[in-house]
Amino acid sequence: MTIKAYIYDAYGTLFDVHSVTEKAEFLFKGHGKEISEEWRKKQVEYFMLHQLTERYIPFSEITRNALLYTLKKLSLPCNEDALDHLMTAYLELQTYEDVHETLQQLQNSDVKQLIYSNGTNDMLQPLVKKRKLDGLLHVLSVDDIKQYKPSPAAYKYAHEELGVNRDEVLFMSSNFWDITGAASYGFKTAWINRAKLPLDLLGIKPDFEFRNLSELLEHKTKRSSQ
Amino acid sequence: MTIKAYIYDAYGTLFDVHSVTEKAEFLFKGHGKEISEEWRKKQVEYFMLHQLTERYIPFSEITRNALLYTLKKLSLPCNEDALDHLMTAYLELQTYEDVHETLQQLQNSDVKQLIYSNGTNDMLQPLVKKRKLDGLLHVLSVDDIKQYKPSPAAYKYAHEELGVNRDEVLFMSSNFWDITGAASYGFKTAWINRAKLPLDLLGIKPDFEFRNLSELLEHKTKRSSQ
């Protein structure tokens, strides 16, 4: 197997969506963790439902709607300022600690690198810049084609942009729904199982399972020396 | 607005999926409630992902896979007997208490009545019979066309089976994802909001919101007398 391109999912894979917890806790004392969890849960549910019902709206709107629902469900008072403040947190998410170093080490390898996300460019670009990844790899958004991952159309777009064979792409995500879509499409997959979850039973087995992104480096080194 | 057909979703709307809790509690003491909740959560997630990735498998398999995952995630020992036992519970779910009477009262009205479910016929038929609904209304399964709700294709199939206009159908479900799909397709919708949840922000507002199914009767009576 020759891998010619690495694709990385963004939210949950490179960027920790739960780094909004601190801001949420500051704004809504005692509720930071549950806001962060419900917000992410609803965000995923909402883009899946928009995709399933064939009514695309941008991820930025979905993220805001998911936050609004979350605050309503938790009976927390919500004003525009608090909403804006929390939405801004999404432009400043922390990377997981192994991310920057791994991407940097791979920068000059012969493998193309790409972030491919359900996020919109106006969410992704400031974030990638803020976390100093902008020089390291390109960013591609499903917003260009208005089809969310994990639909086959979404992976097809990234595939066409890369111009390599399907099985020459290693697609990495911490989200198993994303692995399911990528593997169904025909990419090689590495599940970055940060949360140490059991394998979902969706008829898909990822080619690799890593605990974190730096295991990709170890894996690459091992293969090169064989 | 003239309504010529009522469509009822099955799981969560007529039948209480959490009536498996007792059996789960008997088999796995202290874990009944969390098994039931995780099982349902995974079941919904799994059929959505199969639909999104265009890889249909029947709901009976999805339900079993979701149960297997649940037991694994909760680190509960699982053998075939326990699995079979819990799967059987799905053929004997309780109806909500207002269901039988409501359906019976509507049986001889001029409105067609249909259960339309993601479940397979071999799950639905024994259940409907067990709960003595088999004489009251017809049952239709998405398994005939292998497209899950809430995809537009799924609602189209039920629509064609009924042979009335889209806006002459009142589609009832407790699952907001189902209301979203039905309303997007063009059915009139009544959200049976048993759990008293806030309205999801998916760009869809149901035509009616009922706390339970018997409110349909009150609504119908009110309209007739106007």
From TrEMBL, chains A, B:
Domain of life of the native organism: Bacteria
Cited Gene3D superfamilies: HAD superfamily/HAD-like (3.40.50.1000), Putative phosphatase, domain 2 (1.10.150.240)
Record-linked InterPro entries: 2-HAD, HAD-like_sf, HAD-SF_hydro_IA, HAD_sf, PGP-like_dom2, S-2-haloacid_dehalogenase
Keywords: Hydrolase
Pfam families: Hydrolase (PF00702)
Protein family (similarity comment): Belongs to the HAD-like hydrolase superfamily. S-2-haloalkanoic acid dehalogenase family.
Protein name: Haloacid dehalogenase
Organism: Fictibacillus phosphorivorans
